[in-house]
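Intended use. Records like the one below are meant for learning the mapping from a protein sequence to its folded structure. Do not use them to infer anything beyond what is encoded.
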Amino acid sequence: MLLPAKEMEGILLVDKPSDHTSHDVVARLRGKLRLKRIGHAGTLDPMATGLLVILVGKATRVSQYLMGVDKEYEGTVELGKTTDTQDAEGQVMETRPVPTLTAPEIQTAMNGFLGDQYQTPPMYSAVKIDGVPLYKSARKGQEVEREPRFIRLMEWTLTGCALPRFDFRLKCTKGTYVRTLAHDLGNRLGCGAHLAALRRTGAGQFGVAQALTLDQINALTLPEIERRLIPVVAAVPPVAL
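Structure written out for the chain above:
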């Protein structure tokens, strides 16, 4: 009979694979660490990869603070196709010709999204209206009125262009739906678009280079994992504790 592990406490940085939901990652870690008190500080869509900030033990108490930090992403937009989920996992709703666009023209359109703004959450999202997640209503073909949310884009930079796709780097506030940005940019360019790939590279002071894959974590012993935990006091101001 396995004895329960002593209560661990701290922050574990995980590089989420594309074939897992954020909930899947938490569930696997619960099994590995033999702890129930595990959460995350900001979900990633199933398609997305990259940095997932995992909170272990009493570190779950600071989830709201860590969820509020700015995020950084790298990704790919595909022009000419819109989908019902605004990303590559959805069904194609419309196909349009892609105009001959130059990289500077795309960058100029992207610049128009910089700064403070309000963004309406997509129907395929976990946002709850009257206690019901929007994605459940979307699966029934229902359109629900959503309250726009304040976001800020500090950087949205084109990093590569081979139409109909282009790559980007993004820095934004919490709660920004990157696939909605891709969708809205496609409308602005007149050809439609969806998010083809997304990777979170940063969250506040943390970077994905510090993160471990699930396979790497699985290969570690519990004491080795505990040594990799970042103390809460090193990541959160004293006023937030």
